[in-house]
Design brief:
- This protein has one domain: BirA Bifunctional Protein, domain 2.
- The protein has 10 helices and 4 strands, in the order H-H-H-E-E-E-H-H-H-H-E-H-H-H.
- Strands 1-2-3-4 form a 4-stranded antiparallel β-sheet, with helices on one face.
- Helix 3 crosses helix 9 and helix 4 crosses helix 10.
- The protein is globular, with a radius of gyration of 19 Å.
Length: 230
């Protein structure tokens, strides 16, 4: 199996963190293409078929812009931090119905030096309507939610759910529900850490595919709650 990401990928991102300005990036554009964007697009392209076998409703889109790969440029318009570039690589494999929406159900891959790489799955900061739909699905069938989010291969791989929660339970939900803490969630996501050695290994595509497969029960529940196919 080919290596997609290499130690050079991580070296570029470390160097970028140390010299995060446009002049440095312009002088190192070839390194970025060869060691970061090129391998990421190749990985996305090769992951498309395994992803289709997991679910035909999720997309691995290997375009340079507008696809599964997030831009390296930061949006600094509303941030005090004006450094122009992200110091990580992000890939989001979203549901086809809402493939252009960062808040869509999806699988996420994050590559960053310093032990900060991870794989994630779920629904980040959904709309009020979507969050309410997921909460209602949990309220209506707590046994199915337990199996999907707190047991089996998903829980073994991803552990407990992450993200932010509301301080108060939304109106209309039972405060004595067995998963009241999940009914307060603003995000329905989970993650599992990846070592640099995992990411640069020759079998990383196979290993990441298995990580995605392990999230299937969780993702199937979320999609059903939103009325989406899985």
């Amino acid at each position: 199996m080919p290596n997609f990401f290499t130690p050079r990928t991580f070296a570029f991102l470390r160097d970028l963190a140390a010299s995060n300005d446009r002049a440095w990036f312009a002088a190192n554009q070839d390194r970025f293409e060869q060691d970061v964007r090129g391998p990421a697009l190749h990985f996305i392209e090769e992951f498309a078929e395994p992803l289709r076998t997991i679910s035909p409703h999720f997309v691995a889109d290997a375009r340079k812009s507008g696809g599964s790969l997030f831009r390296i440029h930061r949006d600094t318009r509303f941030s005090k931090d004006k450094t122009p570039y992200k110091t990580h690589v992000g890939m989001h494999f979203r549901h086809v119905v809402t493939a252009g929406d960062v808040h869509a159900p999806g699988f996420y891959l994050h590559i960053e030096p310093g032990g900060a790489s991870f794989a994630a799955a779920g629904l980040w900061r959904p709309s009020t309507a979507d969050a309410t739909a997921i909460r209602q699905a949990i309220a209506d069938d707590p046994a199915a939610w337990r199996r999907a989010a707190h047991q089996g291969r998903f829980a073994a791989r991803y552990g407990t759910l992450g993200g932010e929660s509301l301080k108060r339970l939304p109106r209309g939900f039972d405060p004595d529900h067995p998963f009241v803490h999940d009914l307060r969630r603003k995000d329905f996501i989970a993650m599992t850490r990846l070592r640099q050695a995992d990411v640069v290994a020759p079998d990383f595509l196979r290993a990441y595919t298995q990580t995605v497969k392990d999230a299937v029960p969780f993702m199937r529940f979320l999609c059903a709650g939103l009325g989406l196919g899985f």
